[in-house]
Amino acid sequence: MLRLPEFTYVRPKSLKEAQRVLADLGPDAMAVAGGTDLYPKMKRGQFTPKHIVSLRFLSELRGIKPRAREGMWIGAGETLARVAGNPAVTKLFPALATAAGLVSTPQLRNVGTIGGNIFVDPRCNYYDQTFFWRQAAGFCLKKDGQICLVAPKSPRCVAVFSSDTVPVLCSLNALALLYGQGGLRSVPFDELYREDGIHFTTKGQDEVLKGILIPRASFGSRNIYLKLRRRGSFDFPILGVAAALGLSRDGVCTSAKVVLTGVASSPRVVPEAEQLVGKKVTQGDIEQVSEASTRVSHPLDNADLDYWYRKRMTKVYVARALGDLTNLNQP
Ligand SMILES: Cc1cc2nc3c(=O)[nH]c(=O)nc-3n(C[C@H](O)[C@H](O)[C@H](O)COP(=O)(O)OP(=O)(O)OC[C@H]3O[C@@H](n4cnc5c(N)ncnc54)[C@H](O)[C@@H]3O)c2cc1C
Ligand code: SF4
Fold this sequence. Notes:
Elements: E1 8-10, H1 15-25, E2 29-32, H2 38-43, E3 51-54, E4 64-68, E5 71-75, H3 80-85, H4 87-92, H5 94-101, H6 106-111, H7 114-118, H8 131-137, H9 165-171, E6 175-180, E7 183-188, E8 208-215, E9 222-228, E10 239-247, E11 253-261, E12 268-269, H10 283-293, H11 307-325
Parallel strand pairs: 1-3, 2-3
Antiparallel strand pairs: 4-5, 5-8, 6-7, 6-8, 9-10, 10-11, 11-12
């Protein structure tokens, strides 16, 4: 049995206090929400914080408000189950409800939060192992080692960005509301990540995600999330496709965004999707975008199933997503 190592547990009473404690304790401290990603990684020696700062009981991180002035507000501390089951989320952003509802298992979704899903640690078959396994393999760049075992010549870790909800939030042009030393700042989800399997986020160490804002401009968009994984019952995505399309009454595309997960160290936007704007989308247009999506999809040999299969499936899933949104998939 794997046991948790020793650590001190801090339970702040407010968001302000949580941020201050994280800033005071520095890199030895980590925030915890549901703990479904963090605690197993501590047991396996992947994370070794000396202090854990709990966000679990902070009321400021709660609530789903569809009619907030600037859009829909979702508290970072809301569980995935509550996001997936919320009637307003289901109606306006079915892609988000689907993505949250496809994370792992019901038990985990009842505890795991959307905030934790946004900062879930990038994954790798050579890293998501016990300490003893990694020791036998000689460790790697991401923890305790010197080289990347997947790409030994790579100067950086190429672990896979594996959040289900983030590509959807990117496709809806959502904002992350981060609380730090200078107060609250809003960061577009497109700018929250780096192509780096270790330092994957631009969030500061002491910054706490208070909530998410989906702007009013995204209300009314058609949106969808498709997930590829080995087991339908529970598994991380080895490819996820989020797509959001605005369509006018006469069927002209007014906005288009397609974002991938599970195929690089950060969520990947498919730039060619923008070419759909101003058109009545045809099967040929969809084929062009889906073909182009393989150019930003870079799966490697460090996740489940063959990397070449995942790359080929990228265009299949993008075509399916856009076909569903435009009703062109109907026979
Ligand atoms: C068996 C298993 C299967 C899984 N399957 C999936 C899957 O299919 N898809 C998927 O996306 N994930 C999956 N996960 C990963 C994880 O459970 C989820 O991503 C979950 O949403 C994490 O939320 P949490 O509240 O438990 O995060 P925690 O474990 O508490 O935290 C995760 C990270 O986020 C940071 N964090 C949490 N909240 C905040 C905040 N408000 N502000 C700043 N930082 C914060 C923590 O410091 C930590 O670094 C799986 C995990 C397990 C164990
Ligand atoms: S990609 Fe390389 S450095 Fe990163 S976790 Fe995997 S083996 Fe380690």
